[in-house]
Structures are given as structure tokens and as C-alpha cells.
Design brief:
By secondary structure, the protein is mainly beta. It is built from no helices and 26 strands.
């Protein structure tokens, strides 16, 4: 059973997966698709045609603009922005208000289990890798590898994280998760489970 607040705005043709919750003042636009057991926080915006996999959390006042794709288990922190316009303008070169026909939307793709910290901005087009973590306040302008921990403006890799979200610790030729004990190997800037 879904929980949808009375003040939430659900567009025509939006699909809200079983067990999902959409809280006060959130807007889920037409043709958006939420998987099972998603949580959309107060005042969050999910654009037309945006897709969320199962078990995603989009926290309060986050803005997820189309055509974003979030795979299963993605966390979007409070006030995060996923952009969709490389060269934003309100008007055409002639001064007329831009319409849908004047706009080539590009999206942010976030792979399984990744987490985006509060007030981070992801500037499309880009992909955030599986289980990666974007620090709060970061501005991401380039693709982020799987398991990478990125921070700063512009964001850069400052370490690796495991599936538990904890920074990995280097031990000889491996990276170890302090929470789970899982081991990972790094080769050529890519991290893979052992």
C-alpha cells in the first residue's frame, strides 16, 4: 500500500510503485515512474518521465529534473539538484520565451546504491557510478566511477567507499571496508570487489 500525502501533487500517468511514500508538498510529474518502496520527501520534485528504481530515497526539497534515471537503492540528500540543461537560457537569441522545442534536455544517471549528499549539484550530462558517494555541497561536472568518494567544487575523487558507505582503508594491495570486511582491488583508477 502506498502513502501519498494529501498535499502531494501526482501528475497524470505517473506510476507510484507499491509501498512507496510521497510526502507533503512533493510533486511527481506526469509519466514519472517510481519503483517499489521509494520515499519522496517533503517538497521534492520529480520531473516528467524521470525513472526511479526500487528502494530509492529522495529527501526534502531535492530537485530531480528529467530525463534523470536513478537505479535501485539510490539516496538523494536534502536540496540536491540534478540538472538537465547544459546551456540554460529563458529566451531564444531573438528574445522569445523558450519552449520545449527550443530545448535539448540531458540527464543524470545514478547507478545502483549510489548516494548524493545534501545540497550537492550534479550538472548533466553525467553518470554517477554504482555505490559511489558524492559529498554534501559538491558540484559534480564529470562522470564518477563505481565506489568513488568525490567532494569539492568541482568534485574530484578523494577516496573509495564500500557498499556500506564507509571510506575504505588500504591494506597492502587491497582496499577493505571497515564495516563489512569486504575487500576490493584497484586497477587503473577502477575499483572492483575482490
Amino acid at each position: 500500500m502506498n502513502t501519498i500525502a494529501d498535499s502531494a501533487d501526482i501528475g497524470d500517468g505517473a506510476h507510484i510503485g507499491r509501498g512507496s511514500r510521497v510526502w507533503h508538498l512533493a510533486q511527481v510529474r506526469e509519466a514519472a515512474r517510481l519503483g517499489e518502496n521509494c520515499v519522496i520527501g517533503r517538497g521534492a520534485y520529480i520531473g516528467p518521465g524521470v525513472t526511479l528504481g526500487e528502494n530509492c530515497k529522495v529527501q526534502n526539497y531535492a530537485l530531480v529534473y528529467e530525463p534523470a534515471v536513478l537505479e535501485a537503492g539510490v539516496f538523494i540528500g536534502p536540496a540536491v539538484v540534478l540538472t538537465n540543461d547544459v546551456f540554460p537560457r529563458a529566451v531564444t537569441p531573438e528574445g522569445a520565451l523558450k519552449t520545449e522545442d527550443d530545448w535539448d534536455k540531458v540527464g543524470v544517471t545514478i547507478r545502483r546504491g549510489a548516494a548524493i549528499g545534501a545540497r550537492a549539484v550534479c550538472v548533466a550530462p553525467l553518470t554517477i557510478g554504482a555505490w559511489a558517494m558524492v559529498a554534501a555541497g559538491a558540484v559534480v561536472t564529470k562522470d564518477v566511477p563505481d565506489f568513488a568518494l568525490v567532494a569539492g567544487v568541482p568534485a574530484r575523487r578523494i577516496g573509495w567507499v564500500g557498499k556500506a558507505g564507509k571510506p575504505l582503508q588500504r591494506e597492502d594491495d587491497r582496499w577493505i571496508c571497515p564495516a563489512t570486511g569486504d575487500a576490493y582491488f584497484e586497477s587503473g583508477g577502477v575499483l572492483r570487489p575482490a
